[in-house]
Each structure stands twice: as structure tokens, then as C-alpha cells.
């Protein structure tokens, strides 16, 4: 299988931070993802005021879009630069505070309180810290997770969502011998 050739490859947190610092963020999309728009009804299922989780959120514009609809957004991102750029680019005032349960972690929250972004490793969060979610929008997290960490990631996601909650996942399938990039 093509995935076999990537199984041993690992991208470190330092490499992700360097991508943000160098502006090498081709994975970031300036426009909302068309699949989220197409399947929004699946995510919301007629409900309002949901808690929606964005794993490895970067500065995803969809966070603001869903927050403007009245939902509470929680994201986790290792790059503080990405988190600060999100608030800056949307002209959203925010406050910053440490997360006592996670050494070195910070939580950035919009002053309106409906967007909370945790700056730390995804594997440092748990439902006891960030709570449970009514839905997940995973546009680029699973494909960014190292193959050796996928089971750990999947277990974490299962722990973070309420039972029977929708999980919208965008993934890619390609021959890694023909296309090089940060996606797995």
C-alpha cells in the first residue's frame, strides 16, 4: 500500500512551527471549505448553539463563520502565531491565559467568549480540560497527524465528542511517491 511508504515518516511540532514562521502554510485556505458549506446541515442537524471542535485548527476561517452563527468554537493549535493571526485577521479582541492543567499551554479566548483556542499539542488536551463537543470539523488534522499517532488521535477524538455527534472529516488519497507534501 502507498501508505506503507509513509508509515515511518514523522513531522515534528518544531517543523509545523517552522512552517508557520516561514509562511509555508499552503494548507491554510482563505475561503471557507466548500464541503463544510455542503454538509453544514449534517454537522448542525437542525440544532443551534453547538460546541464545535476544530482539531489542529490553524487560523481556519470557518471558526469565525460558525461562531457568527451562534455556535461556540474550540480549537487546538500548536502554533501561537497561527492563533494570534486568526484573531488579528478577523479583528477579534481576545484575552490570553495559561492553562493550569497543561504545562506551557495558553488559551486564547475572544472577548465575546464564543471562540476559545488552546495553544498546545493536541495530545495534551482531554475532555476534562476542554469538555465534550456536539460536532467536529476536521479539515486537515487527520492528514497532518503522523501515521504512527493515528490510533492515539482517533481515541482522543472519540473521547472528546458527545455520543452520536457528527464528525466531518476531509481527507486525501494520493500516491506519496508522486506527490510530496506535509499530508499523509
Automatic annotation (TrEMBL):
The EC number(s) this enzyme carries: 2.1.1.67
GO cellular component: cytoplasm
Keywords, comma-separated and alphabetical: Cytoplasm, Methyltransferase, S-adenosyl-L-methionine, Transferase
Subcellular location: Cytoplasm
Gene3D superfamilies: Vaccinia Virus protein VP39
Binding positions (S-adenosyl-L-methionine): 16-27, 56, 77, 121-122, 139
Family matches, as SUPFAM superfamilies: S-adenosyl-L-methionine-dependent methyltransferases
Molecular function via GO: thiopurine S-methyltransferase activity
Enzyme class at the top of the EC tree: transferase
Catalytic activity, reaction form: S-adenosyl-L-methionine + a thiopurine = S-adenosyl-L-homocysteine + a thiopurine S-methylether
An example Gene Ontology biological process: methylation
A Pfam family the protein falls into: TPMT
Family listed: Belongs to the class I-like SAM-binding methyltransferase superfamily. TPMT family.
Protein name: thiopurine S-methyltransferase
Gene source species: Oxylabes madagascariensis
Amino acid at each position: 500500500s502507498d501508505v506503507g511508504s509513509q508509515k515511518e515518516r514523522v513531522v515534528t511540532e518544531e517543523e509545523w512551527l517552522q512552517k508557520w514562521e516561514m509562511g509555508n502554510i499552503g494548507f491554510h485556505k482563505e475561503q471557507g471549505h466548500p464541503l463544510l458549506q455542503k454538509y453544514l446541515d449534517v454537522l448542525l442537524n437542525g440544532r443551534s448553539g453547538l460546541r464545535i471542535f476544530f482539531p489542529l485548527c490553524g487560523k481556519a476561517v470557518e471558526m469565525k463563520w460558525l461562531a457568527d452563527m451562534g455556535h461556540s468554537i474550540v480549537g487546538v493549535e500548536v502554533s501561537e502565531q497561527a492563533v494570534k493571526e486568526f484573531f488579528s485577521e478577523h479583528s477579534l479582541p481576545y484575552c490570553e491565559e495559561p492553562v493550569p492543567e497543561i504545562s506551557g499551554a495558553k488559551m486564547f479566548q475572544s472577548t465575546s467568549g464564543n471562540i476559545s483556542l488552546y495553544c498546545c499539542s493536541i495530545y495534551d488536551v482531554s475532555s476534562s480540560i476542554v469538555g465534550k463537543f456536539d460536532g467536529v470539523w476536521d479539515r486537515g488534522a487527520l492528514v497532518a497527524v503522523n501515521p504512527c499517532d493515528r490510533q492515539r488521535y482517533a481515541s482522543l477524538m472519540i473521547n472528546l465528542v458527545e455520543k452520536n455527534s457528527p464528525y466531518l472529516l476531509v481527507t486525501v488519497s494520493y500516491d506519496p511517491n508522486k506527490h510530496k507534501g506535509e499530508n499523509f
